[in-house]
Amino acid sequence: MFYSKRRKVYLLKHWILICLLLWTTLSLYYVYTCSNFNLAQLKDLIPSEVSDQIAAILDAHYPGFDLHQANTTESSVYRKMFKNTDSVAGEILQIMKNYNLEERCELYFANVETENGVIVDPAHDFQYNKFDYVAWDEYLRESLRMLKEDPEENTEEEEEEDVLEEQIRVKFEHAKAKIVAEEQLLHDYLLHVKIFNKCYVDRDDGFIEKQKSLLQGINFNARVPYFKSRFARSKPTGLESKVFPWLTQKSPDYEPLLTGTTTKLIIEQNNFLHDFKSKLSGKGIVLTISDSHLDDCIRLIHLLRFLENTLPIQIIYTELSESSKHQIKQASTAEFHGYVQQNIILVNVTPAIDEHYLHKFDKFGNKILAVLFNSFEEVILLDADTVVTQTPLKFFQLRKYTKSGTLFYHDRNTAEYRPGHDIDMFLKLMNTNMDAQLFGLEKITDKTMTIPLFKHRISHVMESGLVVFNRARHFSQALIMANMYFFEPITDRIYGDKELFWLALSIMGDESFEFNAHPAAAIGQITPYEERVKGMESPPGTFISEEVCSNHPAHINDEDNHTLLWFNSGFKFCNQLDKVDLEEEFDRHDRFTRLATLEQFRAFWGGKLVIASAVVPPQNNAGGQDTDPTGTEPRESWRHMKQYCGGYTWCAYSSIGSGQKPDDRGLVIRYTARERLYFEKLGEIWMSSYDYST
């Protein structure tokens, strides 16, 4: 039978597609077997009576542990370790009963593969594409649309519809296979770091004695082949530089401005991180700046002088001009209304970072360097534009900090959400049953799963303008943060550094962290009734809710539900003044209508923030609340007033809907005359003029 030329082309493409589909199927199967290490896939030879005895012990002391089912994203190293064994569970239990921490660590890293001598490659190019995560129907629809819009993709003869769909299906399956493989690599990378930290930085082996005591009464050596001698073990050589190739294992330069003498920490090479951790001491304030942050930094120093701060301050940098250094010294030591001088140490971290990787810490990454390379044991990390309203020592005395060694603060609880695949990816980075049993890396609990990111898929959880933490208790956090910040599949799913602080701890299995209970508040002045009813056809007689519109996320102490602890974005009412079209914003007349002229509007925008009240919005940020009878009450905790202060203005509401449910009600704080005078004085100090340029 003879076919037309077009028909022959069609058949050829058809067979090519069948071959591609077969290849993709085989590839998917291979990726699946590599990334889904399931203990049930290997035959267990443990006698049933012993297995039942072990299961009872593990169920009692390690809830959720299953001898026959591992996490769906298990380490590929474990697969290699146990690939030639007949009884995976038996050999895991042999390790638990007989191996000390050093032996477990050597066993693990003897089975880790390197690429160009590196175990964790900060330069690895993950082929991350958001489009690859969409479901098939959307993928097909968008792919067809793009084909029609791209003239280079159109052929002279119109493709058969089913052939086009098969081509797109092949690409879709390939994209999904790539996601599985790359998320597996991300899991492996972070696990390498976690296990290295456990073994060689923290050297925490307390869990091993507990395991041995639990299994002491069980005798299964005679029933399961003893395998210790069959495992490949080796002493790690230069392991730290393979896991952290971006570290030079050299000390940063520390330059106290009061003496001008640069010093370095004396640290043992090939044991850099453990030795660095052992030298941490004291309490202090840490911030990181570049020349562009100089003005905010000087104003913060003035404020700390007024607050009679006695803590040393380390300013971490990679590039800082001599002029900036001079002005910082003047701001901290020159006469300033008789306020106490500040002890500032400049810390140049560039000697500690390999020059090939320094760019990996640009922008928000500098805060990770500040966390890692300051020399304090207990730290208050500040942004340069943070306004602290209490003496810094008070933060170390707050109950949640003393309990956990951390204190984090919530961001605005706005109704912004992340797609489900973002949440799935983060969960794949968490510790598994195998990690818990072999290395004591704890699995997450409800403490992590009830955080709004996981419980409600809320985009913004933490505000990182002020973070309090004990580095001796949580030293490895910064190392996990750094490795998370290297890779786009993670950084594209969060904004800057904010979520890294608590996410890194959860990924480590360290849930000893605490958040201040309140979401961020709006501080300023209560919006008058007349402004809120503008544009309403049927305004209510009164509002149930109260409103404050502000450009400054602020934080109220949950110990007394009143004290303003700190806020962000400086003390100027609008810190985006150089980017604002004042005439356009003035003409909006949606809020701030008491400012009758453009000049009044300009002066208010550039003046200091007036703090008379604070509104802490409800925990229930949106949805599910009762509707009020008038339909005029807000249905969300926050309203983004994009038309003001270059998009920085947000209005917070004290209740949503009818406000009948507890979670639909927030908190209104009205500050006393004395408190308002105190805030006014803080504003005067922060806004005061200076000239340290000569």
Summed up, what is this model?
With 694 residues, the protein is an alpha+beta fold. It has 26 helices and 16 strands.
Structure description:
There is one protein chain. The protein is of the alpha+beta class. The chain folds into 3 domains: 226 residues, no CATH class; 152 residues, Glutaredoxin; 167 residues, no CATH class. Helix content is 39%, strand content 11%. The strands form 3 sheets. The protein has a 7-stranded mixed beta sheet with strand order 1-4-3-2-5-8-7. A 6-stranded antiparallel beta sheet has the order 6-12-11-9-13-16. The chain has a 3-stranded antiparallel beta sheet with strand order 10-15-14, with no helix packed on it. A hairpin with a 7-residue loop joins strand 11 and strand 12. Helix 20 crosses helix 22. It is globular, with a radius of gyration of 29 Å. About 6% of the residues have low confidence.
List its traits.
16 strands, 11% strand, Glutaredoxin, alpha+beta, single chain, 3 domains, 7-stranded mixed beta sheet, Putative alpha-1,3-mannosyltransferase MNN14, 6-stranded antiparallel beta sheet, 26 helices, globular, membrane, 694 residues, signal-anchor
What portion of residues is helical?
A: 25-40%
Domains (count): 3
The strands making up the biggest β-sheet line up spatially as: 1-4-3-2-5-8-7
Beta content comes to 5-15%
Total helical segments? 26
Low-confidence stretches: 27-50, 64-71, 222-229
Mean pLDDT: 86
Main sheet: strands, sense, barrel: 7 strands, mixed
**End-to-end CA span:** 94 Å
The radius of gyration over CA amounts to: 29 Å
| CA-based shape | globular
Structural class: alpha+beta
GO molecular function, one term: alpha-1,3-mannosyltransferase activity
Membrane topology: Single-pass type II membrane protein
GO cellular component, one term: Golgi membrane
Keywords: Glycoprotein, Glycosyltransferase, Golgi apparatus, Membrane, Signal-anchor, Transferase, Transmembrane, Transmembrane helix
